[in-house]
Specification:
Blueprint: H1 4-34, H2 41-54, H3 56-61, H4 69-86, H5 90-108, H6 111-116, H7 118-123, H8 132-156, E1 162-164, E2 167-169, E3 174-176, H9 184-201, H10 205-236, H11 244-272
Antiparallel strand pairs: 1-2, 2-3
Length: 285
């Protein structure tokens, strides 16, 4: 049974959070709906709430020892919110949401509650779009890598090809590996899936990290195959094979392939390092 003072403290914290961040949340939800790179953001908050709900027994069983350092974290998060708002820096305003969640948890429940809820709070970081400068630093090398994969595949099939940066020149058409084809969209989504898959399939921390880490090479390999296949199709079928429905369908197909590869990696890990038999603990590490 939750005590009345504790419930009132949580209610007051949620009310204050809503008043301070409703504009930030509104813009964040808008970006989820209009930026395909972060459409997975709609699933992050419900999943984080579920992860927190799983820990409700541990939270109830752990005595609340509010820490004054929580107020310092709250004040720091509000300062970041103000700086981000004045400087029109969306990333700062959004990161301050996570800082506020940390501060509120620490102030209401203390360090023990923060340790229990650390994973659900950290998981919220996946809902925040990267700053443009960081996004571009990641996307452009991926574009070049994908274009190289296409070039290698075409050369292996003895198809005349010339690559200039992220542009692949064929005899009958020119293909540009645009930012949307860099693979960063599938990388971000697959990373989220990898974290969730690892969480539900195994309680061991190192296997969860390993599964999540494997999403990076898997996503890069799948996108390289997609670009190579698009180049081959454009060379043999024609330029129309690189646009429209076929291009969109190949993206979905490669994502399914990437997830299948991730499942294969997971099973390979479990084959050599079997999951210990026993009941699932309420609080995952």
């Amino acid at each position: 049974m939750i005590s009345r003072p504790w419930a009132l403290a949580v209610l007051a914290a949620l009310l204050g959070f809503g008043l301070a961040y409703w504009r930030v949340i509104e813009k964040l939800v808008y970006d989820w709906g209009h930026d395909d790179n972060y459409s997975h953001g709609f699933f992050i908050v419900p999943l984080a709430l579920y992860f927190a709900w799983e820990r409700r027994g541990a939270v109830r069983a752990t005595p609340a020892r509010p820490s004054a350092l929580g107020l310092l974290a709250i004040a720091g998060s509000l300062a970041v919110l103000v700086v981000g708002t004045l400087g029109a820096e969306l990333f700062l305003t959004r990161v301050s949401i996570v800082g506020m969640a940390i501060g509120l948890t620490l102030f209401v429940g203390g360090w023990a509650h923060l340790r229990i809820l650390a994973f659900p709070i950290a998981f919220l970081l996946l809902m925040i779009p990267l700053p443009a400068i960081v996004f571009n630093e990641i996307a452009f090398p991926l574009q070049l890598l994908a274009s190289r994969c296409g070039e290698w595949a075409l050369q292996a099939l003895s198809i005349p090809v010339l690559r200039e940066g992220n542009v692949i020149v064929l005899a009958n058409t020119t293909l540009e590996v645009a930012e949307a084809c860099s693979g960063i969209r599938s990388l971000v989504s697959l990373l989220t899936l990898g974290i969730v898959l690892g969480y539900f399939s195994d309680e061991r921390g190192w296997t969860r990290v390993a599964i999540a880490a494997c999403t990076v090479p898997v996503a890069i390999a799948a996108n390289g195959i997609r670009v190579a296949g698009t180049g081959v199709a454009a060379a043999y079928v024609g330029p129309d094979a690189a646009t429209g429905f076929l291009h969109t369908f190949s993206g979905w197909l490669m994502f399914v392939l990437a997830f299948g590869l991730l499942l294969a990696v997971q099973q390979l890990i479990f084959r050599f390092f079997p999951v210990p038999v026993g009941p699932r603990s309420e609080v995952a590490p």
